[in-house]
Specification:
Blueprint: H1 10-33, H2 38-197, H3 203-214
Helix pairs in contact: 1-2, 2-3
């Protein structure tokens, strides 16, 4: 628990001493003129106590007013400091707002300047997309054409293989016929030789027959 220490003002102290001196003078005068009655002493004492009590209360009120004034001054300084701080913050916010407005304007200008580029990029993208579609169509047609050519080549190859097989069959048949014909020719030659040996025909006749069988012209 803290006790309140009262520090009286010097002016009030001097005033108290002056009042006390006046009362002492009155008491001395009354004492010289005759012994005062006990009622006078009581009144004087009550007056002194009342004066001192009033002086103490006035001193306390003065101290309280002084403390209140100090508190008001302190709060005033604090409010002034806060006001300066608020003004600084407000100025900073104003500067920030101005900078942001400038950035926003620059961004709008940049966006407006880039709209032409964006439109050009969109046009180029559409051109590229159409080129890709056309290329895909050409590839599809080329695949279809190549597939048709492959089918045509396969048909032609099958036809060539069929003709080769037919030629091979014909060649084999001709070989067989040639073999049969050669056997007949050999048999005829042997018969001619037998006729020559038996004297049925002459040598000239044999030669002519051999040339005829071989397909040679006789002289």
């Amino acid at each position: 628990m803290s006790h309140k220490i009262i520090k009286p003002d010097l002016d009030l102290v001097f005033a108290r001493f002056a009042i006390f001196g006046m009362l002492a003078s009155l008491f001395a005068v009354s004492y010289v003129n005759g012994h005062p009655s006990w009622l006078t002493w009581v009144v004087m004492l009550l007056g002194v106590f009342s004066i001192f009590e009033t002086a103490i209360k006035a001193d306390e009120d003065a101290l309280a007013a002084n403390g209140l004034a100090k508190i008001i001054i302190s709060h005033s300084r604090k409010l002034a400091s806060e006001r300066d701080e608020y003004e600084f913050v407000a100025e900073s916010l104003d500067d920030l707002y101005v900078r942001e407005c400038k950035k926003t304007d620059e961004l709008k200008k940049s966006i407006q300047g880039n709209q032409g580029r964006i439109s050009e990029l969109e046009r180029l993208n559409r051109v590229k997309a159409q080129a890709i579609i056309d290329l895909h169509q050409e590839i599809t047609e080329l695949k279809a054409s190549h597939h048709g050519e492959v089918i045509g080549h396969e048909v032609h190859l099958k036809k060539i293989k069929q003709e080769r097989d037919e030629l091979q069959t014909l060649y084999t048949q001709q070989g067989i016929n040639m073999f049969k014909l050669q056997k007949r020719v050999d048999a005829v030659i042997i018969e001619i030789e037998n006729m020559y040996l038996s004297g049925a025909i002459g040598f000239d006749t044999v030669k002519k027959l051999e040339q005829a069988l071989k397909g040679e012209d006789s002289e």
